[in-house]
Amino acid sequence: MEKPALDVQLKTLPNSPGVYQYFDKNGRILYVGKAKNLKKRVTSYFTKRHDSHRIGVMVKKIHEIKHIVVASETDALLLENNLIKKHQPRFNVMLKDDKTYPWICIKNERFPRVFPTRKLVRDGSEYYGPFTSFKTVNTLLDLIKGLYKLRTCNYDLSEEKIRNEKYKVCLEYHLGNCEGPCEALQPEEEYNRNIEAIRQIVKGNFKDSLQRFRNQMKEHAENMEFEDAQRIKIKIDVLENYQSKSTVVNPRINNVDVFSVVSDEGYGYVNFLQLSHGAIIRSHTIEMKKKLDESDLELLELAIVEIRQRFSSKSTEIYVPFKVDVGEDLKITVPKLGDKKKIVELSQRNAKYFRQERFKQMKIIDPDRHVNRIMAQMKEDLRLNEEPRHIECFDNSNIQGTNPVAACVVFKDGKPSKKDYRKFNIKTVEGPDDFASMEEVVFRRYRRLLNEDEPLPQLIIVDGGKGQLSSGVKALDTLGLRGKIAIIGIAKRLEEIYYPGDSIPLYLDKKSESLKIIQQLRNEAHRFGITFHRNKRSKTALNTELESIAGIGEKTVIELLKNFRSLKRVKEASEKELADVIGASRATIVYQFYHKENA
């Protein structure tokens, strides 16, 4: 599929958080931005008048829009920072420097220090974050400082130096902020237990701390110390909204390439995420046309080689959703859980979004291809001999056996053909008998089509389980159409699809387009049938009361309803108003029927 026009790209953007990238006609990156809702944010560039000359010039140059979907707004913020620093887009002003978001570091040393930093030094230290706000960092560090006494000095507290009494306790010890490990006043085991507790806090496990803060806030409020209570409330809010892990930035993952694939009957979509020093610096998805019905494994192996060559990737490790064979030089990892699994899931999510957008773009640019794909998919999913270009669906409607009706809706090329809808009054069935009613309407529908030499559908759907399906099959048998038209039944509760002569139902994937079209047919038949049933019931109720008046016939009833529009107005009308419509003698009869007490 060729690159769609800009207006088509805008129409098919997802309503999800993520990062968008603008490119000019030569493929040069112009701008990187973040969004809580990609569609709203990107569309605003093309619908607003821009006060900034810089933005106006940029919009005129935009030729292509790419985006990366992420799990949260925080991840979008971090990913935007990575991409701007990597690509240095011409129209970005902020974040081009070497300044990064802050982390909390637990230093790899004896008696570890805990401090904020903007630099990741790969010396075995632990880094938590990154954080999009220093307020969050300070709140966490204040919490840690209030709970545990840690050293702040940068001494090398080796056993030998402490034994030789090289250091003396400082002011922090005398202020009660440190237990004095430099003079062996605090055992290493006790200090390390505190560090383990701090690890849990920065990972987000601070349920006890939150409860302690809430109790303090309550005490301040009871003592009328509202400013102190508000300060603690701010800390509680920060901690409750704290997100300790980011999918798009993770210092535990070094230089790797991540690949995933989704496919349909005609195409495969392979997403590539490139990670450098634990941060995503590139996302790219390609569409691959299947030539020989290739499997996902074959498509992914072909794409990995092609993409790595295109982007000159030097990574020695790749993450994939299943084992692949792409040479012995690469380390292949199939993550099962944790951060590595999350990054593969992020890649899969972007591949799925890319596929959805292609479908939407296809609907706009090439509707025939879209229809052909869906019809081919339905033929395969429902095990049919031919594509169901013409589908008809039947539904019965009655309340305790009264006014039984049925509806037939028609879909052609996967879309409703309302001019072909038909409704039926049940004629041969007494009482609430869904099976006999279904047999009657299916028989009447196709007897008429045969008599009038009209085209028959490729698929009949009956709303109901095995009983209704058997009734429909019986009607086709009577007409000699058994085997000439495919017929299935759909049961409402579990969306089970039944076939004639098969007691075991078929379950389609809940997200499959075939099931969605069948559900749309069933719902449309139900709506059409219920509307017809309600109208008939209302009309019958009106006619029954007026026609029950002795001396009033059908023509008089029609005349009254035509002029007064409702039974209520007929009841409220004066004798003279009634006489103007139906004559004096009949007006007296109707008026006295509704005003017996006064009469």
Produce the secondary structure layout.
Blueprint: H1 6-11, E1 18-23, E2 29-35, H2 38-47, H3 53-61, E3 64-69, H4 73-87, E4 103-106, E5 114-117, E6 126-128, H5 134-147, H6 159-163, H7 171-174, H8 188-202, H9 207-222, H10 226-240, E7 256-263, E8 267-276, E9 279-289, H11 296-310, E10 317-319, E11 331-333, H12 338-365, H13 367-381, E12 390-399, E13 402-412, E14 415-416, E15 422-425, H14 434-451, E16 459-463, H15 466-479, E17 486-491, E18 496-499, E19 502-506, H16 513-547, H17 554-564, H18 567-572, H19 575-582, H20 584-594
Q: What would you say this structure looks like, in words?
A:
The chain has helices at residues 6-11, 38-47, 53-61, 73-87, 134-147, 159-163, 171-174, 188-202, 207-222, 226-240, 296-310, 338-365, 367-381, 434-451, 466-479, 513-547, 554-564, 567-572, 575-582, 584-594; strands at 18-23, 29-35, 64-69, 103-106, 114-117, 126-128, 256-263, 267-276, 279-289, 317-319, 331-333, 390-399, 402-412, 415-416, 422-425, 459-463, 486-491, 496-499, 502-506. By secondary structure, it is an alpha+beta fold. The strands form 4 sheets. Strands 12, 13, 14, 15, 16, 17, 18 and 19 form an 8-stranded mixed β-sheet that branches. A hairpin with a 5-residue loop joins strand 1 and strand 2 (29-35).
